[in-house]
Amino acid sequence: MKTNTIKIAAILLVSTALVAGCGKKKVEALPPAAQGTDYGQNATDPNAGTGQIIPGSQEDFLQQVGAFGDRILFETDRFNVDAEDQAVLQRQAQWLAQYPNTRAIVEGHADERGTRDYNLALGERRANSAKNYLTSIGVDASRIQTVSYGKERPSALGSDEQSWAQNRRAVTVTVR
Fold first, then answer.
1. What pLDDT score does 26 carry?
2. Structural domain spans, the chain
3. Which of 14, 36, 108, 174 is the most buried (most CB within 10 A)?
4. pLDDT of 81-126, one tens digit each?
C-alpha cells in the first residue's frame, strides 16, 4: 500500500514537472479590432482613400487627442485615474463634446500576469474608472459602454516590464 502511494506521488510529481516545463506559446499576431468599431479599419465613406479624415471617425479622434491620446495607463493591480490620466480623458471629453452623436467604448486591458478571471475583473474596473471620470466631466453616460478584454488583447507583445506597462490600459474607441 505504501509503495502504491509512493508510485502515485512520483507520477504526479513527474507530470507536474513536465507541465510546468512547457513554455508559453508565442503570440505572432494581435487579435482583430472589436466589432462595431471603426478602429484600425478602412472607412466606408466616399472620401476614403483620398487622404481625408472623416470628422467624427476614430482617425479624427486619434488626430485630435494626440498620439496615444486614446488610452490611459495603469500601475500593476491598480485602476485609479491619476492626474496625467485626467488630462488625457479631458481631451477625449472635449472631442466627444464636438460630436454628440458619436458613442464610445472604453476597453479595459491587463498585462499577461494573473489569471484570466482576475484580469477580466481588473480590466472591467479600469474601463469603469475611465468611464466614471468621463461622465464626471460632462460626457453623457449613455454614450459610453465598457468592455473588458483582460489579457486577451495585448498592445505590446513580450514578457517584460515595458510590455506589461503598455498592456495595463483603458482605451477609448469611437463608434458611429
1. 56
2. 52-175
3. 108
4. 999 999 999 999 999 999 999 999 999 999 999 999 999 999 999 9
* pLDDT of 13 above 90: no
- Give the CA-trace dihedral at 78, 79, 81, 82, to 10 degrees: 0
10 Å CB burial of residue 134 (0-12, 13-18, 19+) is buried
Query: Do 139 and 93 form a contact (C-beta atoms < 8 A)?
Result: yes
Other beta carbons within 10 Å of 168: 25
Distances (CA, A) of 136 to 32, 39, 59, 97, 157: 31, 25, 25, 13, 34
Cβ proximity of 150 and 109 under 8 Å: yes
Residue type, 127: A
Question: Using an 8 Å Cβ cutoff, are 172 and 130 in contact?
Answer: yes
Considering the domain 52-175 in this protein, what is its CATH number? 3.30.1330.60
**Residue that is written with C-alpha cell 459610453 in the block:** 144
CA 98 from centroid of its chain's CA atoms: 25
Return d(Cα 116, Cα 111) in angstroms, integer.
10
Query: What digits encode the pLDDT tens for the residues 31-42?
Result: 666 665 555 544
H or E segment at 144?
strand 144-150
